[in-house]
Amino acid sequence: MKLYFNVGYIVKAGENLELVIVEEGAAVHIHTMFYADNGLWKCEVDFFSKSISYQYRVVDEKRNILREEFVHHHLHFPHNYKEFIIFDEWNNKNFPENYLNNKILYNKLHGFIPEKTTVLKKHTHLFRIEAPIYNPDWKVVLFGNTASLGNWDYHRVIHLSQTDFGLWETSVEIPENELIQFKYCLYDTKEGRIIDVETGENRLTVANPLPDVLQIVSNHYFRFKGYQMYHDAGVAVPVFSLRSEDGFGVGEFSDIRKLADWAKNTNLGIIQILPINDTTANYSWTDSYPYAAISVYALHPQYISLEKLDYPLPKEIVKDYLAEKEALNALDLIDYEKMITGKWKYLKAVFTAEKDKIYKDRNFKKFIKDNENWLVPYAAFCILRDKYKTPNFNDWKTHKKYIAGKVSQFFTTKSKDYDLSMLHAWVQYQLHLQLKDAVDYTHNLGISLKGDLPIGIYRHSVEAWTEPELFGMDFQAGAPPDQFTELGQNWEFPTYNWEAMKEDDYRWWKNRFKALEQYFDAMRIDHILGFFRIWRMPVSAVQGILGYFYPAVPIVAEEFRAWQIPFKYDRYCKPFINQQILWDYFGKDTEKALEFINDNEDGTYSFKEEFDSQRKLVDYFKTHPIGPLEEKLVSLCANVLFLEEERNGEKVYHPRFNVYNTESYKYLPEWEQKSIYDLYHDYFFRRQDHLWYEKAMEKLPVILNATKMLICGEDLGMVPACVPIVMDELAIVALKVQRMPAENIPFYDPRNASYMNVVTASSHDSSTLRQWWKEDPSLTQRYFNQQLIQYGKAPENLTPHLAEIIMKQHLYNESMLAIFPIQEFLATDVKLTNTNMDNERINNPAVFPHYWRYRMHIKLEDLKKEQIFNEKISSWIKDSGRM
């Protein structure tokens, strides 16, 4: 079989195009293309299969890859032809067909049945366009300048068949021997007419006078006006926050069904939740933090419904269960410790009573076999965590180092831990069944689920135990200071060893996305900046302020000389303390502080060796508390100008964040201050961008091409210039929060949002709108007058009417998605607002650890009955075109 490839692409002198044929994700044949004319590249290939996957790439004279397509082309060849002329277009990741053809499309077109297209021996052309369309009543048609293509007659269009999701094809006989011009159109099958014609210049192809040769015209989607593009609205609420009659003091996976019913009533197409993985480390309220999972695969037992297990509760404990359930459900907020203790008590009771039946369950056995790669180490980890009363495997008496052969023994019947292993496996099996049931129910309503992917892993997790080589266990990840946290954030997670992950083509990440794709249609990547660079701290640090970006182009010793900076290690890299600073920090308590600090007898002071890091101080204060001085001493440790890093046997340096605000900086001569400031500015705002672009483009395309989920990136904070460029190239939807603008303006105007955005009024990390309204009256007044275009004095409290205006500003714009926390929907109705607004905040990033315990104050069953409220929301969604 002969394939003649043609693709238009403009390159620079010395660059060439290659065609790469791919099998099972790997390049198997590489063909050098030759340049014809007018930017057209050609090559001829002998091929002997009915389908092909391939990509184009640009190489230099030494065959170094300069650019390549991130999305592969796929073609199927009709059996009655032996030669094919293929006219292609370079397939960009950010062509709409590549980010619209995802799992959300499958939900919107639920029940889709592929159509067949007939290719006859007399046909000369096969027209093929990848064009995902979310309205099931619409289809793609084409017409053109020849009689066989209808002579541009709207009544003689050629209908295409949707042969796969978002893929339209038709075969045509075009006998005319002339340049063929054509356009695609949208056709409404209910109205029986064309409703939209492509904009821009006509598409072109050439005549095909060759008998027994089929010309495949493979086009892309990007020329329609845009109103048929996918737009949607959604609700964001953590699963644990859902309240229903069936719960046990916390939201459960089965409650997603009830939330989906409400979403259907209100025309909302997306349900967004927080991470749902198991975070059980200490069985205390600190485990409520959903971004510190002990496993990136295991689901959290708090979400299991005790009433929807495969087996009922033993009769003798039903009364106790009902009493406990009633007490927990009556609480305004989650009592995490009572809830999780109660759930495990009843889970163990059911498992013990039904153990013999459970062990014989074929589906359960299959679940173990299908998931043994993560399930076996997870169950063993849980047993050892409980046995030694800590998730820190470094403190265990046995199995400190993970050895697969030894851990697999936990699942043998001879093991004393066999029953416990099976208990943990069975709980995961039941969680999977309950979540999958809720997911399938939601999908049947045409509603999609959006999950949340934490950027880090917990330091004492299954993954850190089983594959420590993939992580920087000597470091901590976090975030630099921002408007919420002036000292930055220290999440205490290890960093990623990207070099090790790259060696096996990011297998760890691909497997993680595959697991998430079982349940989710879209995914919010928390802190997507972590794929560009992470804010890294040594384990000796406690506060995020003592971090630096990694990877980064550091400052080397020679640079200090070039910038005429008289670098002295002790002065620049250790806390600078003089008598005035001592007095400013400690005042009359200076004598007490000097128990931790040496007097150098030259007017300066330094921390004693046993207290010369934040970690040493904090660890000491755990057993020797001294009150208010603790925080001041820890803070004084951060009074440095530069942070050192050991790299390839040499010391390199990073300026401390906001170095010009340190007391150390203030005590430098003015000329030295200026030189350090200039170097600081060069480090943070000039030298890193290209490196971070390269690092992101090295890993993100490989990882994201492994999933069919729609990817959204949380790109808030200190965003480098390369981030929006990469996100655009890779079609990652960006987040826009009105009160967290990237630009130097007080508020982001959602009406300016572009298509590849998700807009929202607040997030789980911020205060709610009603809380924010009262935080800063002068800012609220500006917002009231300038953003909401209201006159006079702003009311003391956010009224439902104003909340409605804010919601509508976010709905009526070009953004793909508008997703709001459930609290903001409820704020638009005076009857449904929570009288205690402070109970509605989910997280405060400035407080770590924070207790994540928000619960809706209204039951989902009652919310579904609020007909007037639900019809109001439904009308907003319909009128704004988001359905």
Structural class: alpha/beta
Q: Determine the mean pLDDT.
A: 94
Inertia-based shape: globular
**Main sheet record:** 8 strands, mixed
Low-confidence stretches: none
Share in β-strands: 15-25%
Termini, distance in Å? 46 Å
What is the number of strand segments?
A: 35
Helix content: 25-40%
Within the largest sheet, what's the order of strands? 4-5-1-9-18-10-14-13
How many helices? The count is: 28
Radius of gyration: 31 Å
Observed structural traits:
883 residues, alpha/beta, 8-stranded parallel beta barrel, 28 helices
Describe it.
α7 (372-388) crosses α9. The protein is an alpha/beta fold and 883 residues long. The model has no long low-confidence stretch (mean pLDDT 94). The strands form seven sheets. Strands 4-5-1-9-18-10-14-13 form an eight-stranded mixed beta sheet, with no helix packed on it. An eight-stranded parallel beta barrel has the order 19-20-21-24-32-33-34-35, surrounded by four helices. 32% of the residues lie in helices and 21% in strands.
Quick structural gist:
This protein is α/β, with parallel strands linked by helices.
Write the layout of secondary structure elements.
Elements lengths: L1 E7 L7 E8 L2 E7 L1 E2 L4 E7 L4 E9 L5 E4 L4 E4 L6 E7 L6 H5 L2 H6 L16 E6 L7 E7 L13 E2 L1 E4 L2 E6 L7 E9 L4 E5 L5 E3 L7 E7 L12 E5 L18 H11 L4 E3 L42 H15 L6 H25 L1 H9 L1 H17 L15 H4 L10 H27 L3 E6 L8 H5 L4 E9 L9 E8 L1 H6 L3 H11 L4 E4 L8 E5 L9 E3 L6 H6 L6 H5 L3 E2 H8 L3 H4 L3 E3 L4 E4 L6 H10 L5 H8 L5 E6 L2 E6 L7 H4 L3 H16 L3 H16 L5 E4 L8 H8 L3 E5 L19 E4 L8 H7 L1 H11 L12 H12 L5 E5 H5 L33 H5 L2 H13 L4
Parallel strand pairs: 1-9, 9-18, 10-18, 19-20, 19-35, 20-21, 21-24, 24-32, 32-33, 33-34, 34-35
Antiparallel strand pairs: 1-5, 2-3, 2-6, 4-5, 6-7, 6-8, 10-14, 11-12, 11-15, 13-14, 15-16, 15-17, 22-23, 22-25, 25-26, 27-29, 28-29, 30-31
